[in-house]
Amino acid sequence: MSKFSSFLKRKNIEISLKRYGIDALGAMAQGLFCSLLIGTIINTAGSLFHIGFLTTPVAEIGGTSYTVGGLAMAMSGPAMAAAIGSALKAPPMVLFSLITVGFASNALGGAGGPLAVLFIAIITAEIGKAVSKETKVDILVTPLVTIGAGVFLSWLIAPFLGSLAMKIGDFIRWATDLQPFLMGILVSVVVGVALTLPISSAAICAALGLTGLAGGAAVAGCCAQMIGFAVMSFPENGVGGLVSQGIGTSMLQMPNIVKNPKVWIAPTLTSAITGPLATCLFRLKMNGPAIDSGMGTCGFVGQIGVFQGWLSDIEAGTKAAVTAWDWAGLLLISIILPAVLAPLINHFCKKAGWVKQGDLKLS
Known about the structure:
Number of helices: 16
Low-confidence stretches: none
Strand order of the largest sheet: 1-2
Largest sheet: 2 strands, antiparallel
Distance between the termini: 42 Å
Structural class: mainly alpha
Strand content: under 5%
Number of domains: 2
Helix content: over 70%
């Protein structure tokens, strides 16, 4: 047993929730951002502002035409796998081999591809690390084993994982349509909390394909955390804190949450309020990419996703036009209500002695 432990340590293989549930998942979100998400933003910008270079196909591969954004989106599987490999400290030969694995697992996983990539890239990266530099022909063995294991696992379990992810996502969407009030609260709170925790809400939403009303509730929860923390901590952190949390990430508050978990009450209660308002009153839907549901106001990606969904619905003929009510709902849920409710709730938390001045100060 000690020999096996020594081998794992020598290979930097750490079987832990942090390594797989935080480091790998967080890196996966970055890979998604640098491929699927940025490609979506490029395509949206091209359509919105009628930029010919961004809307005109620049390449044709296998009979499929790709725009600049389309090329970025097509690389989401390889980008996710490479990002996961980097987070797991994979050596170069393993890391480069994971590009093929990411493509295979994402393609075979179908609409639930991100979940397949997450599991298969983690397993394959660790297998590759285990064999790396163990033979004199490492340049052959490491890529052969890594790619072989990854493609085999993709063939074996990616369709199942993709199907499972979509069934879970379908259930959440179905439940939200059936019980928009209760599920609006649940989805908003859970995804919002995930955004602030050192895990990836964006990766979770992408893996489960959270769109529609459930996606709208997820957007509400993320915005409640980001805008809520940003505004209620403004007296302590100023403009820098407002920007870094409001359009960056509320994860910056995690050290303060660990010190005093009660500082989390205000934004979490805010998400419990804005979630059902999004689903029941404004019928806010995320009909853009599922990953956008877990981004909140980070670079305003969540809002771009909702807007992109509006344009797609209009093009499909399921929506006549973008109305003033649509804009009011998006602005209220995303920015105005979190900016008002979170500081107000936090004020009462201070009155109760649960939160003190300085508890939200960023280091």
